[in-house]
Amino acid sequence: MKLIEALNILERVKQRKGESVTCFVATGMNTLHLGTFLAAELGLIYSDRRTDIRHGLYGDFLGNLERLGGSESDCAVVLMEWPDLDPRLGLRTVCSWSPSTCNDIVSSVRKRTLRVRQTIEETCQRIPVVVCPPTLPIPPLSFVPGSQASSLEIDLHDLVQSFASDVSHSAQARLLSSQRLDMLSPLRERLDVKSELLSGFPYKLGHASALAGLIARLAAAPVPKKGLITDLDDTLWRGILGEVGVQGVSWDLDHHSQMHAFYQCFVNALSSEGVLLAVASKNEPELVKQAFSRKDLILTPNSVFPIEVGWKPKSESVTRILKTWNVGAESVVFIDDTAMELAEVKAAHPEIECVQFPTNDSAAVYELVVRMRDLFGKRMILQEDSIRLDSIRHRQTNAASIEAAQAVPNSFLDQVEAEISFDFTKAPLDPRALELVNKTNQFNLNGRRYTQASWQKYLLDPSSFLATVSYKDKFGPLGKIAVVAGRRSEKLNIDIWVMSCRAFSRRIEYRCLEELFAKFDVEEIELDYLETERNQPLSQFLAEILGRAPFPHCDISRQDVANRFAEIRRCQDMTNG
Amino acid sequence: MDEIRTRLANCFAAVFPELSDQEIIHASSTTVPGWDSVTGVTLLTVVEEEFGISIEEDDPARFDSFDRILVYLQDISRS
């Protein structure tokens, strides 16, 4: 991004009416153009919000770190360059360069990285913290020629690596990838000596732009894609199965098709991380079955569900896959080598991300996998990720019995030995609760999304409560599947109510209401309901209880729920004869 | 020369979005309230980026108005 583009974007962002996203940058440098780029990049990600970049005092890195703790920002960036770790590593401080100075610098950097780490640990309990270790070259303080690595250079990098390793193991802090930055911004194109001396801003524009782009993506942490639908021929393997046969398709070095093996490895990795995998292929089902039985297939066939193979338009296969997964097209990537197939699927599902698998271009396949890693990347793998596919399989296997049992829910829940548990512990750092709130569309009270900072602020309010609902039955656990949050006053106000689509048809929503009435001993619950484009399942459920379409701030009484339960029981008695 | 003027005006418009086209061509550090040291640095950086040049700012007064910057750019385009 050019600076003039960033300024123009920023001007448009300023006109927005939405709430501001505030980001505090703790650094000792002048943030100048980096702040402009960062505000613009955040403005592109948060398309309806204004952006506000805050910073502390110039030259006071440690003081600014302390200010971070007291700031009311949505996110924070700890951006340190070598002079922030020791001023003698900067251009603006004059000191004697000698071997003893070098030893002393290493010693002071060691102490300072420890202090920075402690502050980050404390701050990231409240808000997301993006951490950027030094990005600029170390000045030539050491006596060795530049082509030789000096002990100063090695020791300083070792200290920063050790610091970075500690930060990377924190569940809350987000460490900027130096490898990705290296790819975007060559080391020799980073330091702007003139600008550093003139204004205290040490970055060339290209470097500032690349760095701001990465920081913004880390700070905003876009919701990862949930599912990948892949083609088979010339995608998962090289060759057309129907033409060359089961033994003719390949994914190895001997057949110059190694990048298909690389792709299979990546797809397998996605599966182990909880991403849903499916196949949509125009092929003979029996041939695909045989190919999937090959012992040398890298992809684990069990990790793919469903497998849609036939000769009808692929968009129809995709429709069935989305229905089976019960996820929206916007959460899914479809990969195929044929532009026409991609266009056909895109026409039927405009929100799906369609990606062409490159033909005979190994480097492009590598780039594709790098890009996919960005789309599917997540900060941590939760227990729910590991059980997602199994629960979808079980739902499919038991679809008929689930549907039949909808009218007689209690008997169904008894049959499957269902256990629904409620945890009322307020755990602001539980990533699963916030993930559910921000990813759930269909059973969602109002569609409101929360940043980590606003979520923690909400839960720190003494009048607020949080209920996390877990479910398991004889088929296995679904993990945490619902979140209810609200405030207690004369009646109970529910601000947030979401439930994973995997938990539908089990009447867990009724149990939630029962539990809330019992736990808080209230007669009425007020719901901060808003109709959204996609929350029809929740709207229908409320309509069942209210006997009319729900509306903003509608009340549900204990009696309403009791009446509905009585009705369900009458249906159950009639069904049982 | 008109092209240089237009491109420079675009730079001014990005840094001082509140100025009209007419105000831009008469802009100087004394007439534009928002023209401080930070916006001055930003303006010169945008100009450097737009024209692919490096301005050695030994005399800040040389770059304190639209006219002066325009003259500077016209000079270096001739040389």
How would you summarize what this structure contains?
The complex is a heterodimer of chains A (577) and B (79). By secondary structure, chain A is an alpha/beta fold. Chain A has 23 helices and 17 strands.
Explain what this protein looks like in three dimensions.
- The complex is a heterodimer of chains A (577) and B (79).
- In chain A, helix 1 crosses helix 2 (32-45) and helix 3 (61-70) runs parallel beside helix 5.
- In chain A, strands 11, 12, 13, 14, 15, 16 and 17 form a seven-stranded mixed sheet that branches. A five-stranded parallel sheet of chain A has the order 2-1-3-4-5, with helices on both faces.
- The mean pLDDT of chain A is 89.
- Chain A has 577 residues and is of the alpha/beta class.
- Chain A folds into three domains: 3-220, SGNH hydrolase (Rossmann fold, 3-Layer(aba) Sandwich); 227-376, 3-Layer(aba) Sandwich (Rossmann fold), CATH 3.40.50; 402-575, Gcn5-related N-acetyltransferase (GNAT) (Aminopeptidase, 3-Layer(aba) Sandwich).
- Chain A has helices at 3-14, 32-45, 61-70, 82-85, 99-123, 151-168, 178-184, 193-199, 205-220, 241-244, 258-272, 285-292, 314-325, 339-348, 362-376, 383-397, 399-405, 409-415, 431-439, 452-460, 508-520, 536-546, 558-575, and strands spanning 20-26, 50-55, 75-79, 129-132, 173-175, 227-230, 276-282, 304-310, 332-336, 353-356, 419-423, 443-444, 464-473, 476-488, 492-499, 524-527, 554-557.
- Chain B has 79 residues and is mainly alpha-helical.
- Chain B has one domain (2-78): ACP-like (Non-ribosomal Peptide Synthetase Peptidyl Carrier Protein, Chain A), CATH 1.10.1200.10.
- Helix content of chain B is 59%, strand content 0%.
- In chain B, helix 1 (2-15) packs across helix 3 (37-51) and helix 1 crosses helix 4.
- The longest helix of chain B has 15 residues, at 37-51.
- At the A-B interface, helix 1, helix 2 and helix 8 of A face helix 1 and helix 3 of B.
